[in-house]
Amino acid sequence: MKKAGIILLFIFAISSINAQESYQDISYDKIVKAKLGPVKKVLRSKRVFISDFVIRQVTAVSASAQGFGALQGGSSKASLALALSGIESEKYQQAVNEMYDNFVAELQKQGFEIVSDEEAMKAYQSKDFAKRVVAKTPDGPKVLTKKLEAVAEFRPSDHLAIFRDQKNLNTGADFASLMADKKIGKELSRAMDAAIITVDFKIGIAAIKTNNSIMTAVSAVKAWPMLRIDMTGQVYGKRISENGGFYTKKTVEDINYWVSNLDKKGKIKTHADGGNLGYMGWQRTEMTSPIIANEQDFLKEVRGVINGVNDQVAIEMGDKL
Fold first, then answer.
1. pLDDT, tens only, 10-31
2. Which letter does DSSP use for residue 277 in this model?
3. How many CA atoms lie within 13 Å of 116's alpha carbon, on the beta-carbon side?
4. Which residues contact 53 (CB under 8 A, 6 or more apart)?
5. CA–CA distance from 226 to each of 136, 151, 186, 208 (Å)?
6. Dihedral sign, CA of 282, 285, 287, 293?
7. Rounded-to-integer distance, Cα 225 and Cα 205, Å
8. Residue 48: left (phi > 0), alpha (psi -120 to 50), or beta?
9. Where do the domains of the chain lie?
10. Which of 6, 29, 48, 209 has its CA 20 to 30 A from that of 182?
11. What angle do CA 183, 189, 191 make, to 5 degrees?
């Protein structure tokens, strides 16, 4: 009869990783790539409308690994869950609003005219957009919980959003569906006589590595608390063929000095009251190790990286015209 092996769970600190950069030390011109292609013609008018600006903050993540012991017999399973705590959604929302304002200012510095919500609404109302629905973005996060992670989506407060249809609006479907196809982008570009821009950031809270084994009974999950930031963006023109984009060529892996519950060896300290820390969208508190953030330091790093990336996006857009 097979006997169960030992569950192995490891949580390591970022100090064991060589690449450590703060937002001041990142060469944004080396990681931001713009491919504007045929949309350059539309961009030369220097009129743009930012139809979506979203920050998807991972608030919890889990992983597991198995050892099947085909040669040695026995089996094991390792698992862990990490959740972000210590960040007030109101403060995060304020930071997102500031990051959006910074992006607008940088585009204007490059000579772009930003189509206002009021002008966009008039253009929308003057055209036949079939089932499209206009709404305002919420003030605060929309939390999406999946099996392996929870994500809080933040957008600048009270800005224009155009949904696919009434059903999409009523069900609160993922805002990512906004501008998800070239057809809607073309419609908006023509109606507003401007290029349409979307910006999408995802921010992870840890690097995770799993060790699965078929031959042995050894399994392990390792995690390094850190910020892991990726960005993609789209630019739509007046024809379906007129579109482009920009993105980060590699994940920005940021230092973890903002984690307040690391011990002297750089490992996450356990928290006696882990079930009452208030994770956004995450209920598995009994199996979760908290990453307790210093709010000021955390938001400083997030704001610094995102502003750095967006500043470079604005420069790339201006330089390539």
1. 443 333 343 456 888 889 999 9
2. S
3. 3
4. 100, 103, 155, 156, 159, 198, 199
5. 33, 16, 38, 10
6. positive
7. 6
8. beta
9. 20-61+81-205+227-261+292-319
10. 29
11. 105
Buried-state track 264-303, b at ≥16 Cβ within 10 A, e below 16: eebbbeeeeebeebebbbbeebeebbbbbbebeebbebbb
Residue type, 66: Q
| Long-range Cβ pairs for the range 101-109 (8 Å, 24+) | 101/156, 102/307, 102/310, 102/311, 103/50, 103/53, 103/199, 103/307, 103/310, 103/313, 103/314, 104/50, 106/310, 106/311, 106/313, 106/314, 106/315, 107/48, 107/314, 107/317, 109/314
Give residues with Cβ within 8 angstroms of 71, minimum separation 6. Answer: 215, 216
Give how far the C-alpha of residue 124 lies from the chain's centroid of Cα atoms, to the nearest Å.
Answer: 28
Here the tokens at position 233 are 């963006």
For residue 247, what are the CA distances in angstroms to 65, 102, 222, 229, 313?
A: 31, 18, 28, 11, 9
What's the pLDDT tens digit per position in 273-313?
Answer: 444 566 777 877 667 888 889 999 999 999 999 999 999 99
Among 178, 137, 180, 177, which residue's Cα sits nearest to residue 156? 137
Exposure string of 150-168, with b = 16+ CB inside 10 Å and e = fewer, is bbbbbbbeebbbbbbeeeb
Per-residue pLDDT tens for 177-211?
545 566 777 888 888 889 989 899 999 998 887 77
**Length of the chain as a residue count:** 321
**Rounded to an integer, what distance in angstroms lies between the CA atom of residue 125 and that of residue 178?**
18
Q: Mutual orientation of helices 117-126 and 182-192 as an angle, nearest 10°? A: 100
Contact yes or no for 84/279 (Cβ under 8 A) = yes
Query: CA-to-CA distance for 281 and 141, rounded, in angstroms?
Result: 10
Dihedral (CA of 176, 182, 185, 187) sign: negative
Residue reference for tokens 């997030």: 302
Q: CA dihedral defined by 245, 249, 252, 253, rounded to 10 degrees?
A: 150
